[in-house]
Amino acid sequence: MSDDKHSLMIILALAGAEPLAERLARTLRAESGAVAYRDFPDEESYVRIECDVASRDVVIVGSLDHPNDKLLPLVFLADAARDLGARRVGLVAPYLAYMRQDTRFHPGEAITSRSFASILSAHVDWLVTVDPHLHRFASLQDVYSIPATALHASAELGRWIGENVSSPLIIGPDEESRQWVDGIAATAGAPSTVLSKVRRGDADVVESIPNLEGHRSRTPVLVDDIISTGETMIAAIRHLREQGAREPVCVAVHAVFAGAAERAIKAAGASRIVTANTIVHSSNAIDLVPLFADAIQNPSGVRRLGGRGSAGATGG
Ligand code: R5P
User: Fold this and answer.
1) 146 beta partners
2) Nearest C-alpha to atom 2 of ligand 1 is from which residue?
3) 63 Cβ below 6 A of ligand 1
C-alpha cells in the first residue's frame, strides 16, 4: 500500500478494542481515531466519532464476542462514518459471532448466521476475520454480500507450539479439523491425529478414544478454533488422561470461554491453556496483529481459509 493510501486510512476501535486498534494502527503507520461510547440512562447507545473521517478509508476494529452488546454500537459507528463522508468503511472483526447457527437444527429455529451476515453486509463495505466457524457454509461469501476475507491462524498456532512445547503431538477434536490440524502440525514439525466427536447438547460432548500408539512420550496438544463451553476440550482431555497420556496443552484461536469454561478445562487436567489474541483474555499468547496488518496492506495476497472443515452433519 502506498504512503498516500496510509495517510487516507484511519483506524477506529469498537469499545474495548482500543489496545488492538492502536497496535494495528502503529503496525500500518495509519492514524488512530477517537470514538466516544456511552449508554443513555434508558440503555440506548451513544456513539460519537471524535476525529475527521471525511474522504478517509475507515477501518473499524473489534471482536464480536458478546455480539448482542456490540452490534448496535458497531452499526451506529459505521453509519456515522459513512454520513460523515468516509470513502469506505471496513471491519476487522478478529472473532466473528453467530457463525455456528448456520442451519435450522430444529424446526422453527432462526438461522442466525444469515441474519447477522446480512446486517453487517448492509453497514460496512468489507470484512476481515480469522478462522470463522465455517461448517455448512464453504466460505464467508455464501452468507456475506460484501468482500469478506477469512484469515487462517494455523501457521501462528503451529509456530507457537513448535517454539513452546517440547515433543508435541497435535490432536484435533473432530474429523472436520483434520486438514486444519495437519497444517498446524506441519508448521510445528510434529505428528498429528484427530478424534471423532458427537455433540449431544450445548454442554454435552462425547469424544472417541484417540490412537496414541507410538506417541506416548509426546506432549498432547489439543487444538481447536473456538473454546466456548469448554466441553469439547474437557471430553478430549478426559479420554487422553484415561489412555494414560500426559496432561495436555490446550491451544485455540478464539477464547470465548462461556461461564466457568476455563476453570473446568483446568480442573479436567489441562497443563496450560493458550489462545490467540482475537478475544481479549488472560490466555492470549499468540499475536495475530501482523496477520491483520498483512491482510489490510495486501488484500489480494492474504492467506484465505475456505473452511476449517468440509460441510458436515454435526452442530458446532
Ligand atoms: C465445533 O465444531 C468447534 O470447532 C468447537 O469444537 C466448538 O465450537 C467448541 O465449543 P465448546 O467449547 O462449547 O465445546
Assistant:
1) none
2) 316
3) no
Distances (CA, A) of 282 to 123, 131, 276: 32, 20, 10
Cα–Cα distance, 160 to 142 (Å, whole number): 32
Residue 310 class from Cβ within 10 Å (0-12 exposed, 13-18 middle, 19+ buried)? middle
Atom of ligand 1 nearest to the CA of 308: 4
pLDDT tens digits for range 145-175: 999 999 999 999 999 999 999 999 999 988 8
Please count the other Cβ atoms lying within 10 Å of the Cβ belonging to residue 204.
11
| pLDDT tens column, 80-91 | 999 999 999 999
d(CA 185, CA 168): 9
Q: Which amino acid is at 268?
A: A
Cell numbers for 261, please give them: 469454561
Instruction: Please report the pLDDT score of residue 300 as a whole number.
Output: 60
Separation of alpha carbons 263 and 306, rounded Å:
33
User: In sequence order, what are the residues at sequence separation of 6 or more whose Cβ sits closer than 8 angstroms to the Cβ of residue 122?
Assistant: none
